[in-house]
């Protein structure tokens, strides 16, 4: 296996997601228990259940990640700031926020920069990782490049391809583009439509250092089976 990737190493690259709108506390508890058992890097959830998931994961080192203004990004900077601060106060270790694509389409780049600066600064002061979700399926090549340029100025920890709720998800082409533009200054997270090991490996080979997926268990087990077959 390339890069000596083990199931344990792969699990620590996975943000295991549960972002549905109709999840019970029992579902969250089972999800967190499974995520802890596989030792994923993070659970990706909406901001409301952060506190309860933090409690469910208190005996593990799995991060709790809050999705901010998810999935459309169509809330004000002030609203995103409030949601970010609340999520961190309730136990979030990582923040994934969705860019306001309307203002990007309007070429209101000062707004996009101010939005990114506001959220990244809050995360930085709190010692929390920040991720900026582009939602590439709605963007032109130029718009992707613009967001990467702004990110290079602001320095979030990650830029991310997609929410998984748009018309398209991660592509290797987008991951390569984003990585080529930000280099080692910012990490790239691929998310959306990654449901098997081969797709995950393709994203990693393209430059992704984090994988967002609801199929983390399946992906890790596929790797374990493949390595066993090779030996």
From TrEMBL:
<protein>
    <recommendedName>
        <fullName>Deoxyribose-phosphate aldolase</fullName>
        <ecNumber>4.1.2.4</ecNumber>
    </recommendedName>
</protein>
<keyword id="KW-0456">Lyase</keyword>
<comment type="pathway">
    <text>Carbohydrate degradation; 2-deoxy-D-ribose 1-phosphate degradation; D-glyceraldehyde 3-phosphate and acetaldehyde from 2-deoxy-alpha-D-ribose 1-phosphate: step 2/2.</text>
</comment>
<dbReference type="InterPro" id="IPR011343">
    <property type="entry name" value="DeoC"/>
</dbReference>
<feature type="active site" description="Schiff-base intermediate with acetaldehyde">
    <location>
        <position position="160"/>
    </location>
</feature>
<comment type="similarity">
    <text>Belongs to the DeoC/FbaB aldolase family. DeoC type 1 subfamily.</text>
</comment>
<feature type="active site" description="Proton donor/acceptor">
    <location>
        <position position="96"/>
    </location>
</feature>
<dbReference type="GO" id="GO:0004139">
    <property type="term" value="F:deoxyribose-phosphate aldolase activity"/>
</dbReference>
<dbReference type="InterPro" id="IPR002915">
    <property type="entry name" value="DeoC/FbaB/LacD_aldolase"/>
</dbReference>
<keyword id="KW-0963">Cytoplasm</keyword>
<dbReference type="Pfam" id="PF01791">
    <property type="entry name" value="DeoC"/>
</dbReference>
<feature type="active site" description="Proton donor/acceptor">
    <location>
        <position position="189"/>
    </location>
</feature>
<comment type="function">
    <text>Catalyzes a reversible aldol reaction between acetaldehyde and D-glyceraldehyde 3-phosphate to generate 2-deoxy-D-ribose 5-phosphate.</text>
</comment>
<dbReference type="InterPro" id="IPR028581">
    <property type="entry name" value="DeoC_typeI"/>
</dbReference>
<keyword id="KW-0704">Schiff base</keyword>
<dbReference type="InterPro" id="IPR013785">
    <property type="entry name" value="Aldolase_TIM"/>
</dbReference>
